[in-house]
Amino acid sequence: MTEPMRVLVAMSGGVDSSLAAALLHAEGHDVIGVTLHLWDAAGENKVGRCCAPEDREDARRTCDLLGVPHYVLDERQAFRTHVVDPFVQTNLAGRTPIPCVACNQQVKLERLWQVAQSFGAQRVATGHYARLHHGPDGRVELLRGRDLTKDQSYFLFGVGQEVLSSLLFPLGELHKSEARELARKHGL
Question: How far apart are CA 41 and CA 60, in angstroms?
């Protein structure tokens, strides 16, 4: 185990971010859960539940279970400005945008690192299936997750060195089946 530290965990409400928080908490880290309110999806006809109020509630319940604080930050305007509007314009121009890349690069991770610093946290953790390698020259390399069927490193390729060096990916060495089993063991 590494020395205990304060870690801000990006909590989407899903099992992966919940497990990331639970694993770090079990290791003795001082965990703070933060959910970014990016979009109002209530009542929309869509596939999945991304950004629904239930997701924020699921994240809060996980934090309650772990006995750690949970905060929700309103980032709807930043999400619209940096992700939704460019997505629409790119799509209308006949190109294929990847909104998750823009979101991680320009909305989520940079903002979470700023918030982490205001809380005195040394790191930001997410439930991404990705890994990091800290080179002898101080540069951080982004690597694919161990489970190649769940690898999410491509969503993170545009994240700069300062933010990248602050990140933790507790699920990066796991396969999704292992993560599901660990989540069950933690009561998630």
Answer: 18
